[in-house]
Amino acid sequence: MFSKILIANRGEIAIRIIRACRELGIKTVAVYSSADQNALHVQLADESVLLGDAAPRESYLNAEKIIAAAKQTGAQAIHPGYGFLSENADFARAVESAALVFIGPSAASIRAMGDKAESKIMMKAAGVPTVPGFEGLQSEDEFRKAANEIGYPVLVKAAAGGGGKGMRVVNEESELSDALEAARREGLNSFGSDVLLIEKYLDKAHHIEFQVFGDKYGNLIHLFERECSVQRRHQKIIEETPSVLLTPQLREEMGKAAVAAAKAVNYYNAGTIEFIFDPKISAFYFLEMNTRLQVEHPITELVAGIDLVQWQIRVAAGERFPFAQDDFTQRGHAIECRLYAEDPSTGFLPSTGVLLQYLEAAGPNIRVDSGFSTGSEVTHFYDPLLAKLIVHAEDRASAIRKMRTALSDFVAHGVVTNIDFLQEVLKHESFAKGEVSTRWVEENFGAWGAAGVSTDAMIAASLADVVFAGATLQSAVSNETDPFNPWNQTHNFRL
Amino acid sequence: MFSKILIANRGEIAIRIIRACRELGIKTVAVYSSADQNALHVQLADESVLLGDAAPRESYLNAEKIIAAAKQTGAQAIHPGYGFLSENADFARAVESAALVFIGPSAASIRAMGDKAESKIMMKAAGVPTVPGFEGLQSEDEFRKAANEIGYPVLVKAAAGGGGKGMRVVNEESELSDALEAARREGLNSFGSDVLLIEKYLDKAHHIEFQVFGDKYGNLIHLFERECSVQRRHQKIIEETPSVLLTPQLREEMGKAAVAAAKAVNYYNAGTIEFIFDPKISAFYFLEMNTRLQVEHPITELVAGIDLVQWQIRVAAGERFPFAQDDFTQRGHAIECRLYAEDPSTGFLPSTGVLLQYLEAAGPNIRVDSGFSTGSEVTHFYDPLLAKLIVHAEDRASAIRKMRTALSDFVAHGVVTNIDFLQEVLKHESFAKGEVSTRWVEENFGAWGAAGVSTDAMIAASLADVVFAGATLQSAVSNETDPFNPWNQTHNFRL
Amino acid sequence: MKTTFDTHSLEVNPSGAGYIAVVDGKNVRVQVLRADAKTGMMELSIDGRRVVAHVSADKAKRWVTMNGQTVMLTKTSGAKRGVRHDHAGGLIAPMPGQVRSVAVKVGDLVKKGQTLLTMEAMKMEIRIQALKDGAVTALHVQQGQTVEREQILIEVEE
Amino acid sequence: MKTTFDTHSLEVNPSGAGYIAVVDGKNVRVQVLRADAKTGMMELSIDGRRVVAHVSADKAKRWVTMNGQTVMLTKTSGAKRGVRHDHAGGLIAPMPGQVRSVAVKVGDLVKKGQTLLTMEAMKMEIRIQALKDGAVTALHVQQGQTVEREQILIEVEE
User: Fold this and answer.
1) Quick check: A493 and C56 CB within 8 A?
2) Any CB–CB contact under 8 A between C74 and chain A?
3) Which of A126, A87, A122 has its CA nearest to residue A106?
4) Closest listed residue to residue C5, CA positions, set B159, D148, A249, A465
5) Under CATH, which architecture does the B4-103 domain have?
6) Which residues contact residue B484 at a Cβ distance below 8 angstroms, ignoring those fewer than 6 apart?
7) How many independent structural domains does chain C possess?
8) Nearest 10 degrees: CA dihedral of A260, A266, A269, A272?
9) What are the C-alpha distances in Å from A271 to residues A105, A108, A322, B233?
10) Which fold has domain B132-200?
11) Nearest-5° angle of CA A235, CA A237, CA A240?
12) Which residues, at least 6 apart from A182, have a Cβ–Cβ distance to it below 8 Å?
């Protein structure tokens, strides 16, 4: 087993990985940008290395600096988390070339799945169902012909893309040209490639993905599905497992397809096969594979009873997976809500600022994976994910009730959050019925507005100035008493 | 289902029950003594009623006041938690007589199991194995004869007792007289009865208990064992499940005996059958039944995948238990450590004071059931339990590692705690092997002393005065600025 | 003590052991049952109802969470003061981020709906489009520049 | 600045951007890398080693948690000042609680090991026994009385 690991990420996922390392008796090295010098992941790690400026290319996307930091601190392996360099095959190769272990799949697997067009061709060959569409097109004319053949709406997406970037829904021919341009530009900016593919856009589709996991000795299993259909801007905000749509037979079929897909690229470590699911005809299509740990991995951990991050590390260290497919069953129901610093009433625009107050929900079977605390700053440099709130209960109805109670206990002041909006989704009849498809949020909450201001709220705000007057005075006094006193910023009152 | 429940308890268990109620959409009424007016359970409940002075008989043991509080607030049911009135058959009957629902078993079941002598006779009749011994003796002479027949060491205990009170181990005849007197006095003081029984004291015995659960329609199942052998002063400090000592066959036998024992008293709701287990001959004996929720119920919740408190309420409301024995399996391994305000280096004497700082451990599959926060006072009126730290992992070794990491993250200043002592137990070879019997702590840690003071600690303490000087100044200033400002006590520096 | 939040005013005055709030001409009796500065928590009795609120303050802003819902209030002098969304002909940044590209220069004639520049922040691409036909009279940013929320980016006059 | 904790002394003085601690005649370089008053957390560099400590203070007492271990230090004037466990012939309460019963009265002759009174607190019964043969010279408590930790209960002289 490794004695020291560098974590090439930030925020909640860096902390999640640090905790896994500590339980395995492994020392940790955090890396950080100048914007993150007071971040929690830096405080929790055993040591830390400053990479550079806030811009990701100067820090969390800078492969050379990260590998140098690992060599300098004597780390033996690098965990990339999700996002940033996690699906970058060149990075994985560079890590291995530097005689370090990349905690994830092989560079070859990442590369094979990284190109959405190439991987789709491979999946067809492996007998995995894929969405009707075309790869390898060049001119706008070719795309136009393909779109007409498939039938609108169609989806154009960057072959190298992921995470909702470089992706456009095209409802009619007149929108095609702009969409191609935008997707190409985003693809080029974000992934360094403007190659696109086009496929049928499934209107009321569900996004159902399967967790797969393999060791380096060819053992490969799946750990059931995650239903991730509650999305805004092609990004998930609520995930749950099991999916109410799957029969045991369908689950088995999809699980087998997921394992076949991963086997086709000799996959090891944790990965996710994303399917589009059409509930009208109970058909599923391979969408893409995420060759890394997924944001929503905790719901699988709770329902399957496994620590995915610890096993990522163990498998990377050469341990053999002691489990077989039949050792796993789904127990209970888990839901994750992503708490974002964003304003649902303005089309989910991100919100930045200092967290004046940040109180997490707590209680039996409530898990909070978070990278923030009171006084933390939410900057525009990085993803505005504040925390993942995860619950586990005996059944779906209990899990929804538990989540709603937990959300109402969460307090985050200083940035606008989507907490109240998540509540609205959770209490919606369509969510209760499990009918939510990927476009449901935009169709139902376009004109959503936050609750109005109540008289009670105004009374509380007025009285706070009176009751907490002492606190503001303290802050004013103590700022001048000690220059070595960096903690005043944590006061919840700033005047 | 009830719309409002009164919780006749305090501390972590009151909070646990409040959370369960909130998830079920039930309003809660807290009761409290004058010592607890700022307690967390009072803050978390929807409403609260002051019972009286700090002494339990004026507050949490005062059945009349509690029932009056329930009637006054319109609560329909009373949850007694554990301790206090939870195993008081008269209270259960009085609650029902007041047209309220007692969330627990029937008064008759409590009464039948409350007398250790009577229940032992009943268990023998039901074919449940019991510890060799005698009931119904009166004079010291009779006890002396019985002890000689059983063979020393013997155990004398109050027939009405529980929780380690009114119980004495007698190693030789010369100690018998004092032991009888002490057990009688404690029995009289604590339970109002000086009736004793005597039985064989099993030297290297393990304490293994089974959770049972039944609805009001005769469905009764067990939810597996809890190994509770790590004890000091006959009270548990570490519990875990599964027990490493049980084979599947033995587990099934003991589970069946547990269900038979509960059936013998027409039991419903949650209860626990305690067994003494002799690992040398793999024999088990009925010890007693706890006719209430157990302190250590969380480890069963995690490994069996059920919310026991929510089901207590649902069963009390007349719901039918939808599960059968075969629906339950054990998944993973769970450990609970009881974090007490007590000093292991002085024979576990309780420690009282204000919590200057209280930071709980957190992370995936770490659960903290607690009734305290920074600024809370630990008084001598009540049990010195600060928190229950509970972990769940894939196997025992992982669970121990997770617990040790979590313990090292816990900070509790202002009272002496057993945290460092728990660490010593967890890293002990005998614990790793599962060889810990009920007298193991006293045999191995008699001369235990806390770690010495390091130079680093002194440097940190010195520098804190410099670095945090602003904080002490604040406190001094703000105390005079606003008489409506009750929160200054939460500062971690008090000068 | 009179306070105005956005367009609503109320008055809160000490009265005995508590306070009287005057809202819409009606008197409401308020008591502070408990308060914790560390969490900004206040337990109030408003007209006999128990209300738990968490309040934070940043200059004139007050954040209040009650019953799991959060609102943000702004203390004003009483005169109505809107946000700068409708700043003359200026187009402002709806969020902090970085200018990805600028499609026009000063003097260009633009049509309503035409994309003038694009911004990127976190995972979003945002197009800043002309609200009316006109000419670009000022360009305050350039490609690659970091901008704050509500910063004026470009100005278009008819 | 010289500080004495129980029987150990050390001196900490500012030096450049950090401090020099003098321990047992040796100089140790210390830097404060981070501090958070809310949690009493300090991240220090001691002789180049990164150390994370949580410190709380209550009058002369300092609680320090490091590497998951907690110690309690008492700031003293430097002169050795023991706790009062050995207070002349007085027997003190080892914990706060209530006096359950008193078995002797002033003037009684007692034997070493004899139970003089019993206390009860939480779930414990505690016997206060004579440390030596002697006579009861003073009885400071009575049955049912609540006592504090280290309060003198009874005095026995040889």
Assistant:
1) yes
2) no
3) A87
4) A465
5) 3-Layer(aba) Sandwich (3.40)
6) A466, A467, C32, C35
7) 2
8) -40
9) 8, 14, 18, 50
10) Dna Ligase; domain 1 (3.30.1490)
11) 115
12) A168, C125
Domain boundary among D54, D74, D94: D74
CATH of the domain at D51: 3.30.700.30
Six-digit token string for A202:
């499934």
Homologous superfamily of the A206-451 domain (CATH): ATP-grasp fold, B domain (3.30.470.20)
pLDDT tens figures, A106-115: 999 999 998 8
pLDDT in tens, B306-364: 999 999 999 999 999 999 999 999 999 999 999 999 999 888 989 999 999 999 999 99
**pLDDT tens, per residue, chain D with 158 residues:** 788 888 888 998 888 888 999 988 899 999 999 888 888 999 999 999 999 999 999 888 999 999 999 999 998 875 444 333 344 566 877 777 888 889 899 999 998 878 888 887 765 677 787 878 889 988 989 888 888 877 888 888 88
Residues C149 and C115 in one domain: yes
Convert the pLDDT of each residue in B106-123 to its tens digit: 999 999 998 888 899 999
In Å, how far from its chain's centre is CA A79? 15
Cα separation, C1 vs C12, in Å, equals 5
- Global pTM reads 0.86
Report, as ranges of residue numbers, the positions in chain C whose pLDDT lies below 70. 78-89, 122-124
* pLDDT of res. B493: 45
Mutate to test the interface with D, among B167, B337, B343, B349 (most CBs of D within 10 A): B349
Q: How far apart are CA C107 and CA C134, in angstroms?
A: 10
Q: Is residue C124 part of a domain?
A: yes
Residues D64 and D98 grouped into a single domain: no
* Average pLDDT in chain C: 83
Q: Kindly give the pairing relationship between strand A27-33 and strand A47-52.
A: parallel
State pLDDT tens for residues B435-444.
Answer: 999 989 988 8
Domain extent for D120? 86-157
Residue B204: pLDDT band by 50, 70, 90 thresholds?
Answer: confident
* CATH number, domain containing residue D115: 2.40.50.100
Å from D66 to nearest chain B CA?
7
d(CA B395, CA B488): 44
Strands (E), A194-268: 196-200, 206-214, 220-232, 235-241
Collapse the DSSP code of C124 into the 3-class scheme (helix H, G, I; strand E, B; otherwise coil) and give the result: strand
Kindly state whether residues C93 and C152 are assigned to the same domain.
yes
- Please report where in the chains the tokens 């809370």 appear, as a residue: B376
A177-209: buried (b, 16+ CB within 10 Å) or exposed (e) per residue? eebbebbbbbbebbbebbbbbbbbbbeebbbbb
pLDDT the model gives residue D89: 61
Torsion angle, alpha carbons of A421, A427, A428, A432, to 10: 130
Angle at D57 between CA D51 and CA D59, to 5 degrees: 150
Q: Are residues C16 and C55 in the same domain?
A: yes
Does the beta-carbon distance from B462 to D1 stay under 8 Å?
yes
Phi, psi of A65 (to 5 degrees): -60, -40
Of all residues in chain A, the percent with pLDDT exceeding 70 is 94
Ranges of beta strands (E only) in A316-452 are 333-340, 342-343, 349-350, 353-354, 357-359, 366-370, 377-378, 385-393, 411-413
D38 closest CB neighbour out of A38, A46, A490: A490
Contacting residues for A434 by C-beta, under 8 A, at least 6 apart: A227, A243, A244, A245, A396
Which of B332, B368, B470 is nearest residue A485 as measured by Cβ atoms?
A: B470
Predicted ipTM?
0.84
Q: Which of A184, A355, A357, A389 best tests the C interface by mutation, with the highest count of C CBs <10 A?
A: A357
A50, A34 contact by CB (below 8 A) = yes
- When mean pLDDT is compared across A13-22, A250-259, D145-154, the lowest value belongs to D145-154
